[in-house]
User: Fold Dual-action ribosomal maturation protein DarP from Thiorhodovibrio frisius.
Amino acid sequence: MHRTSVTNKHLESDGVHGYAVAPDGIEDGPSKSAVKREHHALQELAEQLLRLPRAELERLALDAKTWEAIDETVRIKDKRALARHYKRIANCLARLDQEPLKALLAKRDQAERVATATHHQLERWRERLITEGDAALGEFVTEYPQAERQPLRALIRVAQRDAKRSRPDGPRKLFRYLRDLVQSG
Assistant:
């Protein structure tokens, strides 16, 4: 049973869903603010989805109307028109099950965080290997037993020499070697 004749000063929030609750306990549905928050979240979801490569989008179960809206996005150049278009896509997404969409975005976000953390860790190793030399090399080989000391030691010497000359080639080669080593093992 919905009540529409109660004024706002007699309503309280239920504290959970943003529904307005009359003093007698009858819910009036979501508040205007809750509806706006939900729609803004859908617009953000639409923007995030449109940043994905087409191949990943195709793995999702989207209806024809949503695909049509996604395809139209490519032609839109004006920022205001694009903002309106995000609202249109958000309306399309509101009719769909959003859990698979959110799960895909969460999975991608997690993969990006792991890749960034690995990249930073490799940069720290590179800096330690260049500055500390053999002491850091021993620790690195302990942590990554698949690493071969001789090629790594040669790369470290070249990187140290190039770092003193402010040349990026040696440190880059060392970083690539470390990255390939960690990715293969």
Notes: The domain at 113-184 is CATH 1.10.60.30 (Diphtheria Toxin Repressor; domain 2). The chain has three domains: 1-30, 33-96, 113-184. DSSP finds eight helices and three strands in the chain. The longest helix spans residues 99-132.
